Amino acid sequence: MGKETGFIEFERENQSKRPVEERIKDFNQIYIPMNYEKVKIQAARCMDCGVPFCTSEYGCPLGNAAPEINDLALFALGFLHPEHETLLGDLGVELDERGNVKTDEFKRTSVKGVYAAGDMRSGQSLVCKAISDGRKAARTIDLDIMSQTNLR
What we know:
Structural class: mainly alpha
Helix content: 25-40%
Radius of gyration: 18 Å
Number of strands: 0
Order of helices and strands: HHHHHHH
Distance between the termini: 28 Å
């Protein structure tokens, strides 16, 4: 998770809201997104205190970001295996003999908290297979985070 002393070392910074005059003109987000560096610092405030379900509706007792959930979602599109000299290489995700991301039956990769589905793990295939794969990955992610799921 974050850093055990992060909540002491880094000041909490909340997202700014867009001016009301702007917000009433559209249906866009209310909050102005933080840049990546600020998000990393806020996620480091998590002290891995052991409070169960700190990502539930009650949230972290210190009001910190939940870094394991809020980090990143990637989509891979194409006909060949995913690019290896990108984030996959940086993460050290294990690949299969064809260069695709290797997962277990629940779509977990060799790196904790990183999941793969669809063409990224099986190679080019049918869209319906990728959708099914994505649903299985979503169910696993839900189970890993919440220890239960309503997803089928």
